Amino acid sequence: MASGIKDKVAILGMGCSKFGERWDTSPDDLMVEAYIEALDDAGIEANQLDAAWFSHHIDDIGAGKGGTPMSVALRLPNISVTRVENYCASGSEAFRGAVYAVAAGAADIAIALGMEKLKDTGYGGLPATNYGTFGPQIGPSGSAPGNFAQLASAYSAKHNVSAEDLKRAIAHVSVKSHANGAKNPKAHLQKEVTEEQVLNAPMIAEPLGLFDCCGVSDGAAAAIVTTPEIAASLGKKDLISVKALQLSVSNGLESHHNTWDGSYFHTVRIAAKKAYAEAGITKPREEVSMMEVHDCFSVTELVTMEDLFISEEGQAVKDVMDGFYDSDGQVPCQIDGGLKCFGHPIGASGLRMLYEMYLQLQGRADKRQLKNPSIGLTHNLGGQPANNVCSVAIIGSL
Amino acid sequence: MTDVGISSLVSYIPKLRLLRKSITEANSWLAPNLLGKGKGTKSISNWDEDSVTMSVEAARRLLGPEDNRSYVDNLFFASTTMPFADRLNSGIIRAALTLDESTLCTDISSSLKCGTTALINAISTVQSGKSNYSLVVTSDKRKSRVASSQELDFGDASTAVSISNENIIAKVVATASISDDFVDHFRGPNEEFDYNWEERWIRDEGYLKIIPKLVTKLLEDNKINPSEIKKFILPCIFPKVPQTISKICGIDPENVVDNLALSTGDTGSAHSLLLLTHVLENSTPGEKILVCSFGGGGDAILLETTDLVNKFKNEESISSMLDNGIEETNYMKYLTFNDLVKWEKGMRGEIDRKTALTTLYRHNDAIMGLIGGKCSKTGTIQFPASRISVSPNSPDIDTQEPYKLAEKRANILSWSADYLSFSINPPNYYGIVSFEEGGRIMMDFTDVGEGEIESGKDVKMVFRIKAFDEIRGFTRYFWKAVPI
User: Fold this and answer.
1) A178 in active site
2) What is the average per-residue pLDDT within A100-116?
3) To probe the interface with A, which of B365, B370, B414 has the most A CB atoms within 10 Å?
4) Helix (H) or strand (E) holding A14
5) Fewer Cβ atoms within 10 A, N terminus or C terminus of chain A?
6) Choice among A56, A57, A178, A344 that is catalytic
7) Dihedral angle sign, alpha carbons of residues B147, B148, B152, B156
8) Is residue A215 scored above 90 in pLDDT?
9) Where are the alpha helices (DSSP H) in B172-307?
10) What pLDDT shows up at residue B69?
11) Nearest to B72 by CA among B33, B106, B102
12) Candidates B355, B442, B454; nearest CB to A140
C-alpha cells in the first residue's frame, strides 16, 4: 500500500459561513464569508495561495460552471482554480485536491472552498434534476429522501427490526442533532425538538418524516492547507494534521448485482477500512473521539454507524438508543448539529464537517466543546445508497 | 383449403372501475339530464396507461412467457387514440414485446371499427399465405369532456387476437365490410375530444340501416341462415338497438351478446373483440359467432368455434377481471389521471422531460424491451447490459448476451413511498427490484394499493408510460413493477 497522507499536510486555517436560508446573500458573498475567516485564521495574504479547489454541485442555480466563480468572487491572484463535483461529497473532494497538491509539493499553500446556493430554487428540498440522458428514461423520478428511505425497509428486513423500533431509533438520531445544533450559532436550524415531534411530523418518504431529513441550506466553507514545516515557519503551534483521506466510489455492484442487500453502504465500509489503515487506527470504536457523518437523513446516520465499524452490525439501533452517539456519549456524532441542523449546502458540507472537527481539536468549539478530543472523523457521502461516492477523512493533532 | 382463424385471444381490463354515480352526482348541477345514466361502472386505466401500453399487456398475456416470439409475422395495432400521429405506434408495441424486427407492423386507425378492420386484414395475410401467424392488438383510451354523455359511456381496455392456420379455436367463415362516410362523430387534428351529432339520427340512419345491410349481405353471400347465429356481437351505446338489428336480420335477439355497458363501458375500437373474448371464453364447439362493429360504415366477421375451444382458457378471463375490479369513487382522481382539470403540479413537476432520441434508440432493447445482459462466461445477469460485466470478481469484457427480463420472476429488495417528488398518483412508489435468476433495477412501482408493498414481496413487470414531455408532445415509456 502507498505510504498514505498521514501527517504530511496540516490545516493552516478554516472558515465557514453561517448556513441557512441566506435570502439576501449571493453565491459570491457566501464564498467571501468563508474565505475571509479562513484567511484570517491562517494568518496569510491571498498572494500566498498557490492553488485552489472549488466544490460546487448544482451550478445552474448557484454560481455557474468552472473555476471562475471562485476566482472572481475572491479576486484570487490568477492562480489555478479547479472546480470539482462529486455529488454531496464534493466538499471533501475539494479538500482532497488541495491536500494532495501540497503533499505532492506542487503547491506550498492551497485552499479548498465549497459553496452551494440552494435557496434560489423557489421550493423546499433539493432541486429535481436530470442525470444524463439515459438515467431519466429508466430510473424513478424520485427524490433523495425516497432513495435513502429504502435503507429502512431493507435494514428492517435484514436485521428483523420492527418498523416502530427503527422509526424510534432514527427519531433519536434527529433529536440528538437538534440538541447539538441548538448550541451552534452558525447552524441553519437551532431549535431543539422532542421525540414526539419527530415521530408525528408529516411524512416525506416512508418511513422518513420531515424531521428525519436534513436542512437544505445556503452556505460555504473553506480550508487552507500547507505542510507542517511551512505551518511551523508561519508561527503555527498545536498543528492539526490530516491522518487519512479516502474515497470509494460505487461501480454498479449495488445497483446491478444481486449480492448487495440494500441495508448498508458498500463504499463506506471500503473507505472506512482504508482510512483507518492510513491513519493507523485499529480499534475505531475506542480510538475515534468524535465524528461528523453524512446524516442527510436520520436512517443514513444510523446505518453509517455500522459501516464505519463503530457499532457492530445490527447493533446501531441499540447504540443510538443507549446514547452512545449523543454529545455526552462515548463517540459524539454531529456535535455541530450535522447536516440535519447545521444544514447541507452540498458543495460546502464536506468542508463544514472538517471545520467542526478542526475547531474541536483546537478547543475552540465554545458551548459544544468536547473534552480533549484527539481524533476526528468525517464521512461525506454523495449519490444514493445503491450508487454513491463516499469520502472518509480523519484529522487529529500532529 | 386450410382453415384460418383465431388461435388465441386475450383481453385486458384495467383494474379500476369508476362508479358512474360518482360522475353524475358531481355534475348533477350542471348536467341533471345525465343523472339517469349514473348506473354501474366504467373501466378506467391508470394515468400511466394508454392504448399502446394496454395493447402490450394484452399481447403479453396472449404470447405467454417464452422468450421466442419469432413466429409472429405480422402485427396490427388498431386504435383511434394512438399516442403518436407520426411514429409507428405498432413499432413501439413490437419493441416492448421483443418481436423480431422483420415483423411487419401496421397501424390501423381513424374509425371505431378499426379493431375489426385490423382483424380482417390479419385474416387476409394468413389466408393469402403471406403470414402463418398474425397478431392484432386493439385498444382505446378515449378522452371525453367533463359532464358529457361520452364521459359516462366510454371505458378503457384492450384485446389481442392471434390469427393462424394452426390450433384454431374459431375458424373464419366469412368477412364483410361497408365503408360509408356516415359521420356520427369526428375528432379533428389536434382536438382532444369527439364532436358528436344527434343520437337519434345516428341510431336510425346509422346503426339501423348500415348494420342490417352489412349482416344480411354477409349471410346471403355465404348462404348462412340467420338462425344459425348463436352469438351476435355489436357494440352500441344505445340500449336495445343490437336486439332491434338482430330482429331485422332474422337473428334470435336472445343471442345478442351483453355489451358490458354496466361494467366496462364502451371501450371503443377494442370493444367488439373484447366481447368476442368473453364469448370464446365461454363457448362450445360448433357455435357460429357474428362479430360486428360500427364506425365509418361497419365490419362483420363470421366465426365458427372448433373442438379446441373446449380447451381454451385464459389465466385472467373477462369474468375474473370483471369480478376483481377495484371500485373507484373518486371522480377527481379520474379527472386528474386524464388531465381533464388544471391541477397544481408543483415546481418539481416542471423538470424538463425531453427524451434524447439518440439515447432512446441506442438503448432501445433495454428501455422498450427490458432486455438486459447475461455474461457468457459467468452467467451473471444484469440490467442494463454493459461492455464490462458487473460481476464483482470477473469483470469480463464483451461477454454480454441479450437476456429478456420482462417475463421473469422478481421481488422487492427495498422501497419507499415518496410524497415529495412529482407524481400524478402520489405517493410515488419506487425501489429496487431483484430478479430471481439475477439482475436488478431501481424502478417505479405502479398499481399499488395502500399496504400492498413490502420487502421480499413478488412483483410482475408491466410496460407503462414513464413520463409525458408536455413541451414537445412526446410520451416516454419504460417498465414498472406491480406487487402481486
Assistant:
1) no
2) 98
3) B414
4) strand A10-16
5) N
6) A344
7) negative
8) no
9) 199-201, 208-221, 241-249, 271-280
10) 97
11) B102
12) B442
Q: What is the pTM of this model?
A: 0.96
Res A20 pLDDT > 80:
yes
- Closest chain B residue by Cα to residue A157: B455
% of chain A at pLDDT higher than 90: 95
The CATH number of domain B5-337, selected from 1.10.10.60, 2.40.50.1070, 1.10.10.10, 3.40.47.10? 3.40.47.10
Q: Do A149 and B418 touch (CB under 8 A)?
A: yes
Which residues in chain B touch residue A256, judged by CB atoms under 8 angstroms apart?
382-383, 390, 439-440
Nearest to B137 by CA among B111, B109, B118: B118
Any long-range contacts for A162-168 (C-beta under 8 Å, 24+ apart)?
A: A163/A207, A165/A317, A166/A207, A166/A299, A166/A302, A166/A317, A167/A199, A167/A207, A168/A195, A168/A199, A168/A321
Cross-chain CB nearest to A123 (options B348, B391, B439): B348
Write down the ipTM of this complex: 0.94
CA of B441 to nearest chain A CA: how many angstroms apart? 7
Chain B contact present for A261, CB below 8 A: yes
Could B366 and A138 be called an inter-chain contact, meaning their C-beta atoms sit closer than 8 Å?
A: yes
Per cent of chain A over pLDDT 70 is: 100
Domains observed in chain A: 10-121+218-233 (3.40.47.10), 143-213+240-397 (3.40.47.10)
Distances (CA, A) of B151 to A156, A300, B78, B375: 46, 48, 22, 51
From B355, B427, B441, residue closest to A137, measured CB to CB? B355
Q: Which one is predicted more confidently, B350 or A334?
A: A334
Q: Which CATH class is domain B347-370+405-483?
A: mainly beta
Q: Which three cell numbers stand for residue B357?
A: 432520441
Active-site residue flag, A88: yes
Q: Cell numbers at residue B145, please?
A: 369532456
Give the domain ranges of chain B: 5-337, 347-370+405-483
User: What is the residue-wise DSSP string for A197-229?
Assistant: HHHTSPEEETTEEGGGB----EEEEEEEEE-HH
What are the cell numbers at A113? 472552498
Q: A245: which 3 cell numbers?
A: 483521506
A1 pLDDT band, cuts 50/70/90, is low
| Partner B contacted by A372 (CB < 8 A) | no
Of A138, A143, A255, the CB nearest to B421: A143
* Residue B285 scores a pLDDT above 70: yes
**Residue matched to cell numbers 369480478:** B323
